[in-house]
Design brief:
single chain; mainly alpha; 25 helices; 0% strand
Length: 532
């Protein structure tokens, strides 16, 4: 048990780059740790506040219906679905595809302890999000219902078991996709397609359950039936927490814990065989000599960076899922008008809100699809090759920016055109809908490079650590969201001012910031890169 705890602790510390910062005597590293801690705390508080506000607004409706239990049911289902989505494409990387596999397996530690530490790492990371979402929901429920003491006891107990089944399901599906794709030559592309297909199919299935019209017409039992049909353990959770039923509490706990134990035990016995199967790849035996092509240094760097991007399924999934969701949403609005959608969710002016705030909403998807915030860290111990290359450091950094724009701009243009058609925007709104997200795409790409230069993590063992959990990714995402909250907050405060003028002013400000960041990369990029 002590070995399992030590491995888990080291893996969690290294996931956020904290291990080096905690033991270094370098003042700059300690300053980075302080900034990272502040950023993480601010992000946690922001998510908690949003969760509390979202729960409170839903509670107002459920209170009138006399179904406050639906609040906890919905939030529990949301955390489970989000945990499933985020685990399905990082499970294989955390459990199997880490660089120090040979080193860890050669240690005098049982394989079961290694497996337990990797599974616990997944559990802790998922539990962290679960707590941020469920605690505010529990607070709102307690304020509105004023339950007995058993509620708090049962709520805290069940909180620990909510992530278990989603982790199991996501790990099995993610590992199966990796294994199946490894049987073919184009394994990475097949893995990406299958993972995207599972995620999109799951999302579409969630919104096309039978009886959807009845659910919307009868917001009482209909909504509860839909949630319980989607995830049956929600019914046990609600009975245990809201009705204080010991039998439901024991059944919910037993199913979650026993499933997790069986899963970990089976994984432990077949761990090495599964790792070998997942890491097996097929290469072509034929090699055809072709004429060598000559290209400019920037183009060569761009091709190298683009190849590195598509060589990592975790990298692609984590940075492109936002653009895929944007495209899916844009296509969906072609079949469900914004007016009808506003009637369904009881927001009559939703069409007007979407027309005016669409550039901000689209830009949010863009800022969540930043590839550059981890592109330098992914170089790892091979960064010295780039640093010693006879090319300008500006070209190295801008090639990473170009890859980011290659990923976002095509999907962005197509999605904006579809939104123009579905929202029937005017010429001014259409121009802003296209231009503002394009500006934010450039801003996000250059900002990610600068943040990654300031907060690099070159000593990672798993790509998941860099792509999902590094300080640069968290900080750049936080800065991107803050930059969008600025025009959104102004539009709420200055209701008498035309929203188009606010968006125009924000666009001009962001252009000036982009020019400043470009000049900063030109003048300081070489120096910052050489210091790494």
């Amino acid at each position: 048990m002590i070995n399992t705890w030590r491995l888990t602790r080291l893996q969690l510390l290294s996931s956020f780059g904290l291990n080096k910062a905690l033991h270094t005597k370098d003042v700059r590293e300690r300053r980075k740790l302080l900034l990272l801690s502040i950023g993480i705390l601010a992000g946690v508080l922001m998510i908690a506040v949003v969760s509390f506000g979202y729960s409170f607004m839903m509670a107002l409706t459920f209170e009138q219906m006399g179904r406050m239990d639906l609040l906890l049911a919905i939030m529990m289902a949301i955390t489970s679905i989000v945990g499933f989505f985020t685990t399905i494409y990082k499970a294989s990387g955390v459990l199997f595809s880490y660089k120090d596999y040979d080193l860890v397996m050669s240690l005098p530690i049982k394989t079961s302890h290694v497996v337990a530490s990797r599974v616990l790492q997944l559990y802790v990371l998922t539990l962290f999000f679960t707590v941020m979402v469920m605690l505010p929901a529990g607070m709102v429920y307690a304020i509105k219902v004023i339950p007995g003491a058993l509620f708090y006891l049962f709520f805290l107990m069940t909180l620990l078991f909510i992530p278990l089944l989603p982790i199991i399901a996501a790990t099995i599906i993610g590992s199966f996709i990796s294994w199946f794709s490894s049987l073919f030559k184009a394994s990475r592309m097949i893995s990406l397609v299958l993972t995207f297909a599972v995620i999109i199919a799951f999302m579409v299935g969630s919104f096309t359950l039978n009886g959807n019209e009845q659910v919307l017409a009868d917001m009482g039992t209909g909504l509860a039936d839909m949630i319980f049909k989607l995830y049956p353990l929600t019914a046990m959770y609600v009975d245990a927490v809201c009705s204080y039923r010991i039998s439901s509490l024991l059944l919910f706990t037993a199913i979650s814990v026993l499933s997790f134990i069986i899963f970990a035990a089976v994984l432990g016995t077949r761990y090495k065989a599964i790792h070998t199967g997942l890491m097996t790849s097929h290469e072509s035996s034929k090699y055809i000599m072709k004429p060598l092509a000559v290209s400019s240094p920037f183009r060569a760097l761009y091709k190298k960076e683009l190849g590195r991007y598509f060589s990592s399924s975790i990298y692609v999934l984590n940075t492109s899922i936002g653009m895929i969701l944007l495209l899916v949403m844009s296509i969906a609005l072609l079949f469900v008008s914004s007016e009808k959608l506003g009637e369904l969710i009881e927001i009559p002016q939703l069409s007007q809100y979407l027309s005016t705030l669409a550039p901000i909403i689209v830009s949010l998807f863009v800022t969540l699809s930043c590839t550059t915030s981890s592109s330098i860290s992914l170089e790892g111990k091979h960064l010295w090759i780039l640093k010693s290359s006879p090319v300008s450091k500006q070209s190295i950094l801008l090639s990473k920016v170009a890859v980011n724009l290659t990923i976002t701009l095509p999907v962005l243009v197509v999605s904006c055109v579809l939104l123009m058609i579905s929202l029937r925007t005017g010429w001014t709104e259409s121009l802003l809908l296209l231009v503002i997200p394009l500006i934010y795409a450039c801003y996000s790409a250059m900002m990610g490079v600068i943040v990654n230069l300031k907060l690099p993590n070159l000593e990672w063992t798993s790509e998941v650590t860099v792509v999902k959990q590094s300080a640069a990714v968290i900080v750049s995402m936080f800065i991107g969201i803050l930059s969008l909250l600025f025009p959104f907050g102004i539009s709420l405060l200055l209701t008498h001012v035309n929203d188009n003028l606010i968006l125009l002013g924000d666009g001009m400000l962001m252009v000036a910031i982009c020019v400043g960041m470009f000049r900063y990369i030109q003048t300081k990029g070489d120096e910052l890169l050489q210091k790494l």
